[in-house]
Amino acid sequence: MDELIQWLAINWLTIVSIILSGIISLVVSAAYYHKGNRNNLQMTMLFPIVRLLNDSYSLANYKNLCDLSQNYCARYLTKKERAVLVSLVSAYSEVSNYKEINVNADSLISYFEYTLKNNGIVVKPVPIIIEDETVGYDYPPDYHYIDIDLYRHRFT
Hints:
The protein folds into two domains: about 1-95, no CATH class; about 100-155, no CATH class. Helix content is about 70%, strand content about 5%. The protein contains five helices and two strands, in the order H-H-H-H-E-E-H. It has helices at about 1-55, 60-70, 80-95, 100-120, 145-155; strands at about 125-130, 135-140. Strands 1-2 form a two-stranded antiparallel sheet. Strand 1 and strand 2 (about 135-140) form a beta hairpin. Helix 2 (about 60-70) runs antiparallel to helix 3 (about 80-95) and helix 4 (about 100-120) packs across helix 5 (about 145-155). It is elongated, with a radius of gyration of 31 Å. The model has no long low-confidence stretch (mean pLDDT about 85).
């Protein structure tokens, strides 16, 4: 035991320097690993997404955007970046599926609802019942077919 204490007294500086060197090496490796992952994320995911956004909106580009958003590198996104990516994919879906007839149908439906409300007619009269409790109200079942009917009448 005395020999161990004597050896530690002589070599304490060597032991501390080895431990400190290991910790510094670990921190430097972690920093480069993080930087490399972020660079890989930028090159394989973010830059191609920016390129897609500069192109015209189409269903093919939407599929490419979905593929890019499911890339392996997406796990290196922060929570905020991931939320932005999800909202971007959702918004791109709506824009890529844009059709003039849908916009016209939505305008007519909103005007129809506005007129009904001004005349004192309840727009959502059908109760939503879950476990014998009314949790809200919804449109009548046939209401959801109005835009389909408008589309059918326009092109027939």
